[in-house]
Specification:
Layout: H1 3-16, E1 27-28, E2 32-33, H2 35-47, H3 61-64, H4 69-77, E3 79-81, E4 91-94, E5 104-110, E6 113-117, E7 123-127, H5 130-133, E8 136-141
Antiparallel strand pairs: 1-2, 3-8, 4-5, 4-8, 5-6, 6-7
Length: 149
């Protein structure tokens, strides 16, 4: 698939998760997922398997650790791009505070909207308003084919 075809497939699959209830560590469309579960579920549908499994994690895992695990995993499996090069279908990672690890993930739907699993709610479309943009820790293009480690 070309990059445009991958982006279209990522967006179609991400849209199909809309309304899935929020469930910490969940990865099942229509049943429950968190933001990582959404990304892993979309990846599984497009590429046939998850790029790697995170293992169990606590809700405060990013605050408790010293490593930026989510950002490192994205760099292993996707292609990093500049924050001002956001393109529909890109993976966006967010950090709540500058000194903390990236903890939230979403998929860009349009220049000013993204899909993500919102705690206490479901998989939703949210506006990429300035308060979200300030928290962007990384922007990544999904690969044409899964990267091999």
């Amino acid at each position: 698939m070309s990059p445009g075809e991958i982006s279209a497939a990522i967006l179609a699959e991400a849209r199909s998760w809309l309304g899935t209830p929020y469930r910490h560590q969940g990865r099942r469309k229509g049943v429950g997922c968190d933001c990582l579960g959404l990304v892993l579920g979309v990846w599984r549908e497009i590429y046939g398997r998850e790029p790697e499994l995170p293992g169990p994690y606590a809700p405060d895992w990013a605050e408790a650790g010293e490593q930026d695990l989510l950002l490192s995993a994205a760099r292993r499996h996707c292609f990093e791009r500049a924050a001002d090069e956001l393109t529909a279908g890109d993976l966006i990672l967010f950090r709540w505070r500058p000194h903390l690890a990236a903890k939230h993930a979403g998929i860009l739907l349009e220049p000013d909207r993204f899909i993500h699993a919102y705690q206490g709610s479901a998989v939703v479309v949210s506006a990429l308003v300035p308060q979200w943009r300030r928290r962007i820790a990384g922007v990544f293009a999904f690969p044409e084919y899964p990267k091999t480690n």
